[in-house]
Amino acid sequence: MAIDVVAGYPPLAAHLSLDAVGVFGGSAGGHTALSLAGGIWSNQRFREHCDKNIAQDFSSCVGFITSLDGGWLDGLKMWFAKQVIAARFSDDSVHQYEDSRIKAAIAMVPYAADFVPESLSNPKIPLGLVIADKDVNQVPKFHVEAILNACAPRCEVVMRMPDAGHGAMLSPMPPLEPGSIGSTLLSDPPSFDRTQEIPELNQRITDFFIRNLLHQPKLDQQDFVRQ
Known about the structure:
This protein is an alpha/beta fold. It folds into 2 domains: about 160 residues, 3-Layer(aba) Sandwich (Rossmann fold); about 55 residues, no CATH class. Helices cover about 40% and strands about 15% of the residues. The strands form 2 sheets. Strands 1-4-5-6 form a 4-stranded parallel β-sheet, sandwiched between helices. A two-stranded antiparallel sheet has the order 2-3. β5, α7 and β6 form a beta-alpha-beta unit. The protein is globular, with a radius of gyration of 19 Å. The protein starts with a helix and ends with a helix.
């Protein structure tokens, strides 16, 4: 839909090559990027993940509504969350999407536990991943690393950031209320140097798309960077 809107807006459309579009998505947007790269996902996979791993990946199953704090209510929170998930995500349809205009994708700290990892063992388009090792919102081993294990070497790690959290995808970081769930899940870990890492990340993302989209004869590098 976003591509269609741009294509229908003459001041932009006249300057763009819409037959070779790159998609970048973070978190839920990373889920979109993986789906467009050929990934298959389902509510069943989501339910099974949360039933098995909710204690270790609670925010991925529940969102920003509540969190585990080590107190006596944690067991009740997990039980109730599983009941809600079972009721709301009962449709077991398998989902897969594609758009022939999209020729490359990057998924940063993606939500990916509901994918069949093997569906991305041979991505349909060049696929890059960005990994934040200290992500507590989408714990890497359940999400991006599961995809990497399936798609390597046919995908690439655009950047692995050992000290980054889930909020590294946000630049600049929005104001977060200290002590809030959002702050806990998104704030930069103390060891993360945003001033150094984010410019490098942006450059690597740019380089990935230049390498994978710049094959169009009518588009030179200067045009690409300007667009």
